[in-house]
Design goal:
Length: about 40
């Protein structure tokens, strides 16, 4: 196995494991309700 192939596979694995680095994506309704809660003070 060539060096570049090994590097390519390592990069793919790291991308696969870091699929959701910021947690679950919020729906627009969830985001809007949080925004309203914070900015209605």
């Amino acid at each position: 196995m060539s060096q570049s192939k090994r590097r390519e596979e390592a990069a793919w694995k790291s991308r696969k494991q870091a699929r959701h680095p910021h947690g679950k994506v919020k729906s627009l309704a969830e985001f809007a309700s949080e925004y309203d809660a914070e900015h209605s003070k």
